[in-house]
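Give me structure tokens for this 204-residue protein.
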Amino acid sequence: MNENRYTAAGWAAILSAVGSLAMLGLSIVFDFAKFAPGRTPRLPVPWSAGQTAAVAAVDALSWILGIYALVRFRDLLRERYGFHAVDRLVWIVVAVGLLAAAASHGQRYAMSREAFSLPTVLVTMVVLGVLNGVVGIVFATRLLRVNGSLNGYKKPLAYVYLAGSICFLLVIPSLVGIVLLVAWSVLLGLAFFRGEELEELEVV
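Here you go.
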């Protein structure tokens, strides 16, 4: 039995999902900590510099693992299916995602320094949400063109990513989009664990 070259990528994808959930958990805890009895909360909730740094550090680790998994996914599509339609698109997905993450952490840091501008935040959220949504929709629809089923994971991967991207495009349900991309990362990890298994290519 051949060793699975994609096992490390599978664990990276799943640990990236765990990191994203941890980041969301910390964000919720830090937000609700400001809603103490007898205090009037501000919306959005300002964090301390330490809280902002902690969330950014967890997110950075999640991103490192996620980028590795995504690049290995591109490699799998190349090696197993001769599929090159996402070769460059993978880096665009990474770039727009990192841009949105950096903007989010930057806004939190500005809030901790009381340099917060709500109109700027809203405009940034809308622009980056639409950008991530459009890029994600293109990525998801291209996955459906892979000449194979990815051992049964092609359609789940494509449709979950598509749903998450639509949430980003609509901006308001962005949190749902994040949760869907966490689920996508877990699916990707499971697909990697079966990455060396043979399957018949589809006739197109």
